[in-house]
Amino acid sequence: MAAGPWNWLEVAKLACGLLTPLALALLGIYIHRITKRFEHAQWRSQKLIEKRLSVYDDLAHYFNDLLCYFTYVGGWKDLQPPDVVLMKRAVDKKLHLAAPLFSEAFYNAGSEFLGLCFETYTGWGRNALLRTGFERRMQAAGAAWKVEWSECFSAAPSAPALIQDSYKRVMEAFARDIGVHESFAIPPPSGIPTNIR
Question: Based on the structure, what is the number of domains in the chain?
Fold first, then answer.
């Protein structure tokens, strides 16, 4: 029996000859898509880190100023009570706006810190009250102290050590979310004045 011009072997060779480049082209397209997805995810991650660093630049100095004010260290005497209340508003706004970019742990740590520093919801249209004593502040300000500033303070102050611990949790959450130092730990403080009133 004579073989026709096309036998099964020839058809199989032709099919393999056509399917191999097609399979390689499809594999190349698939690899290209995976690479593009990876590049996009990497770009997105980089932009997120850049934005988180920008938020850090915006918020870190406020957190530090509040820590200094409520623990009587650093430049606490340079801050006036109404300015500290304005600082709380700025931190509140920035913290809420940044919430989608950070972990829940960061948001909770920031909210806890603010809760230790300020007594909120003290009456309709009233400002938050500072959870700290004012006697030493009044002494330090001397003649610059304004009588109305005494109304800025809460009757239930927070312990400075609690504020310090809360600040530490905020900074550690910042560091974890930014990814700069996975095992970042705030160095122990030099101490809190013991004669605070």
Answer: 1
Cα radius of gyration (the chain): 31
Range of the domain at 58: 52-178
Q: Tell me which H or E stretch contains 129.
A: strand 129-130
Answer whether 167's CB lies under 8 Å from 67's CB.
Answer: yes
140's CB contacts (< 8 A; 6+ apart) are 77
Residue 138 lies in a domain: yes
Residue type, 195: N
- How many other C-beta atoms can be found within 10 angstroms of the C-beta atom of residue 89? 12
CA angle 58, 79, 172 (to 5 degrees): 40
In tens digits, the chain (197 residues) has pLDDT values of: 455 566 777 777 777 777 777 777 788 888 878 887 888 777 777 888 888 889 999 999 999 999 999 999 888 889 999 999 999 999 999 999 999 989 999 999 999 999 999 999 888 888 899 999 988 888 888 888 999 998 999 989 999 999 999 999 999 998 888 887 655 556 555 566 555 55
Q: Is residue 3 part of a domain?
A: no
Query: Measured between alpha carbons, how far is 89 from 181 in angstroms, rounded to an integer?
Result: 29
